[in-house]
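Suppose you are handed only these lines of text.
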Amino acid sequence: MTPIIALAPIDGFTDLPFRRLCRKMGATLVFTEMTSANGLVNTKTYRAIRLKTCDEEQPCFLQLSGSDPAIMAKAAKLGEQAGFKGIDINAGCPSKKVMAGGGGARLLFDLGRLEEIIKAVQGSVSIPVSLKVRAGLSADALVLDQIADIATRHRLAFVTLHARTVSQGFAGSAKWEWIGYLKRRSGTKVIGNGDVKQPQDAQRMLEQTGCDGIMIGRAALGNPWIFRDIIDLLEGRNLRSRVTKEEKVRLILRHFDLLLEYTGSETISARHIRKHLMRYVRGMQGASQIRGLLTSVSSKDDLNRVIQLIVDPALLRKDFCDEDYKEGLA
Ligand SMILES: Cc1cc2nc3c(=O)[nH]c(=O)nc-3n(C[C@H](O)[C@H](O)[C@H](O)COP(=O)(O)O)c2cc1C
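From them, the structure of the protein bound to flavin mononucleotide can be written out as follows.
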């Protein structure tokens, strides 16, 4: 049986269009970006955009951040009504702002509150509830045993462990042995996360830790094909050759169309596609020059001009580009 191959929640990136692309590429589970429970409950415009989902992307878990059990429960209910297939509680975000509000990784130091939140959320929805955590505040203040007990006691659908500590930020490397420890110690499924950069890493993480699934964050940005490649590898097929320029262009155009459908605005879609384009062009001929032009992409026409440059980098010759393209992108 193929294990869970999940797209991570990534603030600013894993909106509905990107999740749809990743599901198409083979991710078996996707997560929304961190969504404020308070925002969902109290702000209509936030709710309207953050609860957008569709059948095609399911199963998708709505990730909630917050610290008030009653508000988390209300937000979870809204997510269930919107059609999400699960609720993921964020207890791993190390951002100062999120922690100052008592949510994210702050919950790892207030485990009583974390349990209250889990109970309140489970009490308000009938869809699965999961938890995403880091390993602890620092290497000498791990909370893996406590998390294992909580996950087992509350029969969580699964726990995702980003195998770094809060104080580590994104520095150093993820300690996969913590994933193996949590898996052995808890009675629930464990999804391993941290530093899966290529398909072979996914296979190694599964083998080394015995985890039930893996989650990919940064390596999927600009490369949603990674899900297809991981599944090919795990199912014993040969890895396909590198993604061609034509495949990239097709995907970028599809991404933009999905953004248009999602935002209803060409300008907003253009703003969103820019940050993805920065990553789609990684490793391509002329990438740094193309990146320099992206800030001025504000319409589909602008995007098409960039695509012409991707297809034919010879057009990037400074003389040509200055007159015909930079002007068009200004
Ligand atoms: C820009 C950025 C935004 C992130 N946003 C979230 C988030 O909203 N919720 C969350 O649980 N984790 C978030 N993370 C953490 C990722 O989900 C993941 O745990 C981390 O990047 C490690 O996995 P990776 O090595 O595959 O990237 C974010 C990470 C990055 C780099």
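What can we learn from it? The radius of gyration is 21 Å. The pocket of flavin mononucleotide is lined by residues 8-11, 33-34, 63, 90, 92-93, 132, 162, 193-196, 216-219 (CB under 6 Å).
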